[in-house]
Amino acid sequence: MKFTTIAAAFALTVSGGMASADALNLNLSGGNPGGLWSLLGAGIDRAVKADDPDSVITYQATGGGFANLALLAANRTDMGLAHDAEVQLALSGSDPFSAPITNLMAIGYMYNWAPMHFFLNRAIAEQYNIDSLDDIATSGAPITIGINRSGNITSNVAEFMLAAAGLDQATLEANGGSFVRAGANEQGDLMQDGRIDMATNGIFVGHSSFRAIDENTDVVLLDIPADVIAATNAEFGTSNFTIPAGSYRHQTADVATIALGAMLVTTDAMSDENAAAVTHALLAHIDEIRGVHNAMARLTPELMVSQTVLPFHPGAAAVYREAGLIE
């Protein structure tokens, strides 16, 4: 993609790099050290340095998207990574937020391909004739379901999807089942040891935790009803996703589900110049972001502007507009 010179206020060109008066010195709140978001933080830092070697993005490890949005709401960080579903809850003031957050603005989408998976022990699936999420409630099966820890957005989404398919906690317990709170890697161990019958999470297809479940436990990947997908997208701002057939050992057909995405978010306190400089760096040096992990190879400028949850910061919008990515 070739960029032309954008508005004089931003003084940016791809060939000339960032020509702002001051180098960037911004904080970015992410997630756990060593996770994908910390890698994204390093890639974003390299991208802005490619425009101006004196620029720096300082990565701050946090508890994740909910924590980052709270920091942004209080103007205690310059930028944060957050799932689109977390942003949706923040805008509406839904739990865990006590009131709507009104100062958020988007820099860009980083990915939208972290689909929700529901793996069920094959023996139980066959015994109770379960092949879809909405079969569980009516099957009467006493299933122990692994669900991510409270404070992780995938736990909110999994609970919502199960309830939309007829399986709220009361129904699950009436069937003799229960929820077990555990992280992605822990669920793999619990499945292998037989301490849970079902694992739920929203991570990239083929993620190491999913591979461990698929390779070490005899499981099936459950179908998701279309009405559950539609309701989840409406509630969380997530998007449709298809897990291709053959992604896992016993998956013979495509599985439609929803996917969470991650956004780079800022606030209306960021200057137009700084927002434009960050955005320009990400577009001009997108390979720095793609290179942080093989899961990021699909990142494109078109993907970056495809989010619809937040308005773009005016500085970011000016860069995208000049690049012909938005009107």
Q: For this structure, what is the CATH class of the largest domain?
A: Alpha Beta
> What's the N-to-C terminus distance?
16 Å
Helix content: 25-40%
Q: For the residues shown, what is the average pLDDT?
A: 92
List SSEs in N-to-C order: EEEHEHEHEHHEHHEHEHEHEEHHHH
Question: Beta-strand level of the residues, as a percent range?
Answer: 15-25%
Q: Total domains, how many?
A: 2
What summary fits the major beta sheet?
Answer: 10 strands, mixed
| Number of H- or I-type helical stretches | 14
Apparent shape: elongated
Structural class: alpha/beta
Unreliable residue runs: 1-19
Beta strand count: 12
Fourth-tier CATH superfamily name of the largest domain: Periplasmic binding protein-like II
Report on this model:
- This protein has two domains: 12-111 and 262-322, D-Maltodextrin-Binding Protein, domain 2 (3-Layer(aba) Sandwich); 114-260, Periplasmic binding protein-like II (D-Maltodextrin-Binding Protein, domain 2), CATH 3.40.190.10.
- The chain is built from 14 helices and twelve strands.
- It has helices at 36-51, 65-73, 84-92, 122-127, 135-139, 153-164, 169-174, 184-192, 208-216, 226-236, 272-284, 286-290, 301-304, 314-322; strands at residues 12-13, 17-18, 25-29, 56-60, 79-83, 104-121, 144-147, 178-181, 198-202, 219-221, 239-243, 255-267.
- The strands form two sheets. Strands 3, 4, 5, 6, 7, 8, 9, 10, 11 and 12 form a ten-stranded mixed β-sheet that branches.
- The radius of gyration is 21 Å and the shape is elongated.
